[in-house]
Amino acid sequence: MDFARYVEEFHRLYLDASGLDEPQIPKLEQVISFIPQKIVILAPHPDDECLMCGFALRAQEEFGSEVMVVPFSYGSKLPRRAERKEELLQALGVLNFKLHDPRKIDSSQEELDEGQILDAFEQLTPDLVITMHLNDGHPTHVRSADLGRRALKHYVGNTKQNVILLQSEYWLSLILVFWFRSVQNIWREWEKRFRST
Hints:
With 197 residues, the chain is of the alpha/beta class. It has a domain at 35-169: Rossmann fold (3-Layer(aba) Sandwich). It contains eight helices and five strands. The chain has helices at 3-18, 28-31, 48-51, 54-63, 81-95, 114-124, 139-159, 171-196, and strands spanning 38-43, 66-71, 98-99, 128-132, 164-168. The protein has a five-stranded parallel beta sheet, with helices on both faces. Helix 6 (114-124) crosses helix 7. The N and C termini lie far apart (57 Å).
């Protein structure tokens, strides 16, 4: 499958169906004053790097930024971790990102700890780190964001390097949509019952 063609076709179908014009998206250099050279994505699970990578992809394309992914977890199910790591490697190949895994080979460790994340920052020397948002809503996403933020604070304190923390929010927005729909459904049911009495 030609992934670029798939994306272009999906985009065209969306614009046709919505009646919207092609959006005029400014270059990053027009909207930010900082050009990151090294970006680290602290991905809570394999697949989250894909959900969090919009800025990193643009920086890679527009500035030649190097993007490295540090997997916080390969999931809670030990039998699936090798498969999840393989999925991550395939995604990174498509995205042209690099993997940095601080775990020892064949480790059964479920999640990274703050020290391992700090070690990754010290080895990779990022000037921009992307984590999930602390209000994300998914427990592993929140833990990874919290430990990433704390490790980054130590890294900046130790190195005196300026590093930008970019938090990406994904699940909370979905939770709010589901909550809103639930409230709508409850309201509709209440109206039906109220009107029938």
